Amino acid sequence: MTPRLLMPALAAVVVAGTLAGTSALAAGRGGRPAPASPAVRCERPAPQEAGSSQKHELSSGGRERSYVLHLPAGYAKRSGWPLVVAYHGRGSTGVEIEGFSKLSELPAVVAYPDGEVGTGSGARRAWQGAPYEPEGVDDVAFTADLLERLDDTLCVDPTRTYATGKSNGAGLTTLLACRLPGRFAAIAPVAPALYPGSQAGCADAPPTPVLEIHGVADTTIPYAGDADRSLPAIPAWVRSWADRDGCTASRAHRVRRDVTSTRYLGCENGTEVEHLAVDGGGHVWPGSDTYSGGGHTTQSIEASRAVWRFFSRHQLTDTEGRAR
């Protein structure tokens, strides 16, 4: 069956137009996200201790690839855990994005893949879709192989699989949403590097919920775009995604003293698009208390919490609206 997306419980609130109650920041900074699915014990052997992070290897495309896997505390006590895949930026690693993102604090299984060394100046890890992408590397296929392994070996819920990332890795999440339709229930790119290569195949892709977070003072991936590098203005890119998702209305609302939420509603298949603009924010992961990039890091929001609240509203369903 053709998959679609369901916004459980909050859909009626969104339709009613109560913006403040449905933004990714609505529950407030530090509020508890939704729990995992009902407690049915995980019967599969765990590859590592619950509450730990460990590096693993995976053969994909004739290469040995690596990723850091985090299992939440209490992992064995239930099955059907949500799965979040988080992609680092250029020159970084899975270990680094785990450290500054705080995603491992969420009630989810989290995988942090490592990119391969790309082209351009320096031997820096990078992802497909950028001008400096690694030659001959298919990160879309690597992601598909990674999801297959995690689905087959862990107690995760394939209908609640999500992708996030920063910069070059965030750009990859948009490519994955377009090239792997029906695999991710939602994506949340943070300060994404939206090169043309990261948008390949998006014109005909099915609707996907997107939360985009960006610093208005980002000088690495400028908020206003960079024509010399074929980078779009962020608000224009968000609108174009909302148009492709068939959204019919938009509302802007200041949710923090330095954060404005623009939400696109009435979208096809229960999807939604939201953009969080951080005044004065740099090329960073908001809310991080360690280095995550250049420029100012706001502490008025935590990107990990905003991302989780957005993800928690979306699940893949079949054409009859049932969880697959």
Automatic annotation (TrEMBL):
One of its GO terms (molecular function) is feruloyl esterase activity. Gene3D superfamilies: alpha/beta hydrolase. It is found in: Secreted. Keywords: Carbohydrate metabolism, Hydrolase, Polysaccharide degradation, Secreted, Signal, Xylan degradation. The keyword Phosphoprotein does not apply. GO terms for biological process: xylan catabolic process. Its main location: secreted. Residues 25-63 are annotated as: Disordered. Residues 54-63 have a biased composition (Basic and acidic residues). Residues 1-24 form the signal peptide. Residues 25-40 have a biased composition (Low complexity). InterPro entries: AB_hydrolase_fold, Esterase_phb, FaeB/C/D. GO terms for cellular component: extracellular region. It comes from the Eukaryota. The keyword Cytoplasm does not apply. This is Polyhydroxybutyrate depolymerase. It comes from Rhynchospora breviuscula.
